[in-house]
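As described in the Methods, two query proteins were run sequentially through the folding procedure within a single session, without resetting any intermediate state between them. The first query and its resulting structure tokens are shown here.
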Amino acid sequence: MDIKSPNTTESIDVEKLSAVFRKNLLWFIIIFFATNLSAYLFIRYTKDLFESESELKLDIKRDATELGIKPMIEDQNLNIVSGEIEQIKSKLFFSKLIDSLDLSVSYYSVGKVLKDEMYKRSTFRVALSFINKVHYDTPIYFDFVNKDQYSILIDNPKKTKVTGTFGVPLEVDGTVLTIVKTKHFVENDGNDYYFVINSKASLIEYISKNIQVDPLNFNANTIRISFQDYNALKAHEIVNKIDSLYITYSNQQKNLANKQKIDWLNNELAQVETRMGGFEDYFENFTLKNKSSDLTLDLKRTIVAINKVDSQRYELNKKVIEINSLLEEIQSGKIATANQHYKFLPEYVNKRMEDLSKITHERDQLSLAYNENTFAFQAEGARIKNCARLAVQSIIRNKKRMAYLISRIEQKERSIEKEFAGMPDKNTQFTKNQRYYKLYEEFYLSMMQSKGRI
């Protein structure tokens, strides 16, 4: 047995390889022709697909604290980029994009194998005045009759075919259109054409299917926009239009968001102003009604007033008691000396009491010299009765006046006590409204500052 060295290099057995090749020569020829034929057929019968792309850097102002609300996380780049991508891929943005592009009608040239979209190089152009919905997304075949006329065939069950004149409106089953020649017109070029009136739904689906929006760098806020189409010019113009439209659309959306914020702030400010106005009216009415805005001081003053009124009532009751005692003395005939002065009586009543005391003293002196049955003694007694009657009448009038004053004081005291009983509740309500007013005032100032930052 031969043992090969590890360093020995195995060579190709040419004779064996040749034998295998000769034996399978037919298969090699079949595979060679099959692969080349497949490549030829693919290139011949497959349209070229073009892709146009663009990169955008998002310049987004992040004001998470516009309304005084702090963000939960510091880095929001991921949310910002994702939000902008979703905005670009939204149907609303696609609708704006379609409105800014000339995609309402697509023009095609029908070849022997493939069809070719003649984007911005069509030999004719269609202007639509009114569209019957049944004609949307339906091929309408076009043919030049001569240099002034054309014919169109609508691909429907009826196979409607009509002839029209260039530049003259034509009505077909409810659709009104005007076809004119373009600078690309070549007479008798031998090509077959058709055009399609695109509905907005089909255009949105077409753009959504062919657009690709991907994030490139979250930290740099950059995204990549690409669009694929079989027409290179069309793909290029759609991407360029997305770039220019996005800036305007994004600004409009941000302005709309800012307008919504401002409208919300204005609405909230109006409500806060109304509530603050209600509190201000309450404070004004409270001050006018209570003649004060310091209930603590009013509480102290009320206590002093109650004590004062109570003292007045006590003094008047004391005087009434003394008057009653004096009346008893007068009725019993025990009159004090003429020099006694009653402080609880007016001066004119004191004068009558002095006269009564003086006459009574004179009668007592006369009783020492005269008998009670004498005329002089009886005359003095009559004078005493008359003077006592006048004094009693004056004292009773004064007593009634004091009773009236006591009733007034008691009424006033009850009113003060009732007001005093309600003061703690008023103070609580007033303090509560003051606290709410300060909170609304701070909230109002905060929203005004937020409105200024937008």
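Immediately afterward, the second query was submitted; its sequence and tokens are:
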Amino acid sequence: MDITGKKILVCDDSVLARKQLMDAVKEVSDGAVFIEGKNGSEAIELYKTEKPDLVFMDIVMPEKDGNAALSEIREFDKDATIIIVSSVGTQEQLKKAIQLGAKDFIQKPFEKNQIKEIIELRLGGKN
């Protein structure tokens, strides 16, 4: 699937989690430009400066959690496409993320086909 030129922000405090997600995107599609953040504060700043087409973000992060970042990003851009990718988090946190405007949720560890489906749905990528 060709998503050349599409910007994808991957925000997770774990270097390994960011790499796994970027590798999964690269495996199911071509041409994306990756932007990496390691906490909610960085996610907000990177979103404002880079204007990514898609955001994958963890909930539990230092400085600012994913829900706080999600809320601020959506205030800045009500059309932001943010996908929560998390292994931990209570039902309340997940429910709040959806209420704040997250477009989807992926449980870690994720399957590559989940990433492919999100990209096809959210970026309109075609094989």
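The chain has a mean pLDDT of 92. We note this only descriptively and draw no conclusion about the first query from it.
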